[in-house]
Amino acid sequence: MILVSSNSSSAAHYVAAEALRTADDSVKLLQNYINGHFVRGAREFADVNPADGSVIAQVSEATREQVDEAVAAARQALAGEWGRLTVPARAALLHRIADGIEARFQDFLLAEVADTGKPISLAARIDVPRGAANFRAFADIIKAAGLESFRTETPDGVVALNYAVRKPLGVVGIITPWNLPLLLLTWKVAPALACGNCVVVKPSEETPATAALLAEVMQTAGVPAGVFNVVHGFGPGSAGEFLTAHPGVDAITFTGESRTGAAILRAVAPTVKPVSFELGGKNAAIVFADCDFDETVNGIADAVFLNTGQVCLCAERVYVERQLFDRFVTTLHQKAQALRVGWPMDQATTTGPLISKDHRDKVLAYYQLARAEGATVITGGGIPKFDDGRDGGFYVQPTIFTGLPESARCVKEEIFGPVCHIAPFDTDEEAIAKANSTQYGLAGSVWTSNLKRGHRVAEKLRVGITWVNCWFLRDLRTPFGGMGLSGIGREGGIHSLNFYSELNNICVKLSD
Ligand code: NAD
Ligand code: 6OD
User: Fold this and answer.
1) How far is the CA of 76 from the centre of ligand 1 (A)?
2) How far does the chain reach from its first CA to its final CA, in angstroms?
3) Ligand 1: does its nearest atom lie under 6 Å from the Cβ of 47?
4) How far apart are CA 355 and CA 416, in angstroms?
């Protein structure tokens, strides 16, 4: 049985949703932020609390004309005082933005929890701190970044100095998903601003609140009008599509589903914009019998269930060396049972709802499919029952399957829920081959006490990021991204700077 939170009173839960309400108890209207002003769109849509299905805010959907205005404002800002700021001045501004997030930590925390339904302890530990850390990191990275230079000597005696200068791309369109809304938005806004660009961001329609708060922080921090713009709305036929197809946008950086990435590639093709894509994953964890068992089971429980499995890096495929298989399945089962599926505002909650009814329908369809494909259900596979407001929310049970063939759709396709399939293996080569048998290529993890084996296996995984004896341990200077269906390009550290800027090589002849 999955434990549900003992706090069945909804009082604590409502504290988060109330953060988005106005004093007169009508729901708040989250507006677009264009050229330094908050503006309404032509239509509104509802922002729904995934914990109980209630409407917590209305959101103003940006019109095509408003997206045009945001892009024009961004273009104009490039030519103004923003375009003349030195790197140290931009870095100082990024630190002020981080200060502003930290000063309003509680507002960001409550907004993120209300929008996503994630446990408050998780948002307080990861989402909001990373929102500020992203700005601090890229403030420091841009100041420390060097550029290439070469003294050139040709065979006929000419000497020259070649050196590169970094320039902003211009207007960058930023489109982000709902699973880590503030973290993933600031992960792109911070380096884009550090490099001197102006941005138009389109947060997920499911989680618009922290982007709206970030606009307030930008205003207070003194970011010039037009440098940071927010347009709310959906993808096709709405702000997302208007932005990606816009001829005035110089580059698109996107995090989301692989299918959406493909649609955006088609939209940007006519204007040949550079893209950076962080897409889906079907990540594998490889557990060797010589691992530190307790550390590994705890690590894998996190890798499978954190954020209700809604992290692109989550492990949905766990391969365990055969002699450890039964013990591992039993212990991970116990860990799943110990999760506290509850109200997001309850400090004891480890596992919140999924983001939406649609997403829950998708995850439940995979739970059904797994059974049809022949899975053994070790735990979960359905919806928890609470007998309170949470029954109107979008919860599913943390779930473990075994017994599927490698060809099963549930082993091949990203589910994006609190679920994994565990399969045994006998040799290193078999584990590597199974882990690599996917069209995705985002992340993997290897769990072993034999560090030589850890290095060897890690190098053979066809992914952008491999963790050994850990998971989601981040250093923001490292390359981050995926291959195959998992994305195009790398961000993080110098890789972000290289995406968000144009390098201009200058060649100066030194000899007569
Ligand atoms: P999604 O692709 O449905 O939506 C992401 C964003 O794209 C939203 O803002 C949405 O409105 C917008 N969008 C949708 N269609 C569009 C279109 N045609 N044109 C322009 N914009 C469009 O993704 P999601 O459901 O919000 O997020 C979950 C997915 O994101 C999962 O697949 C997950 O693996 C992936 N993800 C990847 C990473 C990574 O770093 N690789 C990080 C987080 C999430
Ligand atoms: O930690 C990060 O920088 C990052 N981009 C994480 C992505 C998580 C995906 O859901």
Assistant:
1) 29
2) 83
3) no
4) 10
Q: Which atom of ligand 1 is nearest to the CA of 480?
A: 40
- Return the bridge partners of 355, or none: none
pLDDT tens for 273-312 read 999 999 999 999 999 999 999 999 999 999 999 999 999 9
- The C-alpha atoms of residue 63 and residue 259 are separated, in whole angstroms, by 24
Tell me if 276 CB under 6 Å of ligand 1.
no
Return the H-helix or E-strand segment holding 364: helix 357-372
Cα of 370 vs centre of ligand 1, distance in Å, is: 24
With tokens 């708060």, the residue in question is 213
Please determine, for residue 111, whether its predicted confidence score (pLDDT) is greater than 70: yes
Res 14 pLDDT > 60: no
Ligand 1 atom nearest the C-alpha of 234 is 11
Cα of 289 vs centre of ligand 1, distance in Å, is: 37
Specify the long-range contacts of residues 132-136, CB closer than 8 Å, at least 24 apart: 132/98, 132/99, 132/101, 132/102, 132/186, 133/98, 133/476, 134/183, 134/186, 134/187, 134/189, 134/190, 134/476, 135/94, 135/95, 135/97, 135/98, 135/101, 135/186, 135/190, 136/94, 136/95, 136/98
Q: Which two tokens stand for residue 245?
A: 């197809």
Q: Render pLDDT for 323-355 as a digit per residue (tens, 0 to 9).
A: 999 999 999 999 999 999 999 999 999 999 999
**3-class DSSP state for residue 250?**
coil
Q: Which helix (H) or strand (E) holds 56?
A: strand 55-61
Sign of CA dihedral 106, 110, 115, 118: positive
Question: Does 311 sit in the ligand 2 pocket, CB within 6 Å?
Answer: yes
SS (H, E, C) 420-483: EEEEEECCHHHHHHHHCCCCCCCEEEEECCCHHHHHHHHHHCCCCEEEECCCCCCCCCCCECCC
Closest CA to 262 of 249, 275, 247, 281: 275
